[in-house]
Amino acid sequence: MSTLELHDIGKSYNGVTVLEGIHLRVAEGSRTAIVGPSGSGKTTLLRIIAGFETPDQGQVRLQGKTLADNGVWIPAHQRGIGFVPQDGALFPHFSVAGNIGFGLKGSKREKQHHIDRLMDMVALDRRLASLWPHELSGGQQQRVALARALSQQPTLMLLDEPFSALDTGLRAATRKAVAELLAEAKVASILVTHDQAEALSFADQVAVMRNGNLAQVGQPQELYLRPVDEPTATFLGETLVLSANLEHGWADCVLGRIAVDDRLRRGHARIMLRPEQIQLGLSPQPAQRQAVVTHIDFAGFVSTLSLFMADSHETVEIKTISREGISVGSNVSLSILGQAHIFAD
């Protein structure tokens, strides 16, 4: 069953199209990430779902109920959708408890019980309840914002780049905690982010947005390994894209003869390998592809190597895990794991 359904959503500002023909389904209790560069339209789409913006066309349905359609408009406060903005947007004049309890109904004791339960749910020490927002760390503020959104028992949770202001280590830990929390609460969620690694690790379903359109929607691993086109491939991670000639499930390219994931394709095409599919050996084997390292761009854990291929007399650049013993002038061999992906025509 789908919690959210979007059909043919379109939006323009002053004659400039921001969203066009958006179709998306979010399954009950699932996590969806909408990822794309700045200006691609992802935040506008999230605001339309939340009810902060009206679409020019299309339909928004939540658990079978129409929220937006021709002549129908349900305001944000009546949608049962939680929203966690980028900066948390906590009320500075309310304590932690006041922020979490905002909008809760019932007696003082009942509200305190709910606040305690919500603080436990988001792993916040109850001793923080009396503090002001400015006295909290960035991660704690985001947990307060999440607890406040959960207090309304939403059907759907919207997260607008909520981890972007956190440092790298805290960002990963907070993202994991939020994902586990939402899964435990069985609340469907949509995360908007420009960070592809964040989208791939957080979501069951990833939607790649580009120029107001959804370029591809699917499971994270499917999009990473079989992107529909080159822009999607490069946006979702490091990649090596090569021109090749195809025949009978093989591609002839600068790296030699490589197996591909479509035996029916023929002729010229563009193929893709992810860095982890390319293995380097320091002891060249006669049956493997031979290359000479002509340049190394060392960046810690990962290095970019320029390789002069012995057979084709061409140079390619690959990213690989940095290894001691590989230096400029080294003779190396290459082996390919799995199949190269062929982009759609």
From TrEMBL:
The ABC transporter domain, residue ranges: 4-236
Domain of life of the native organism: Bacteria
SMART domains: AAA
Keywords, sorted A to Z: ATP-binding, Cell inner membrane, Cell membrane, Ion transport, Iron, Iron transport, Membrane, Nucleotide-binding, Translocase, Transport
Alphabetical list of InterPro entries matching this protein: AAA+_ATPase, ABC_SmlMolc_Importer, ABC_transporter-like_ATP-bd, ABC_transporter-like_CS, ABC_transpr_FbpC, Mo/tungstate-bd_C_term_dom, P-loop_NTPase
Any one GO CC term of the record: membrane
Gene Ontology annotations of biological process type: quaternary ammonium group transport
GO molecular function annotation: ABC-type ferric iron transporter activity; ATP binding; ATP hydrolysis activity
UniProt xrefs under PROSITE patterns: ABC_TRANSPORTER_1, ABC_TRANSPORTER_2
Pfam families xrefs: ABC_tran
Name the UniProt record assigns to this protein: Amino acid ABC transporter substrate-binding protein
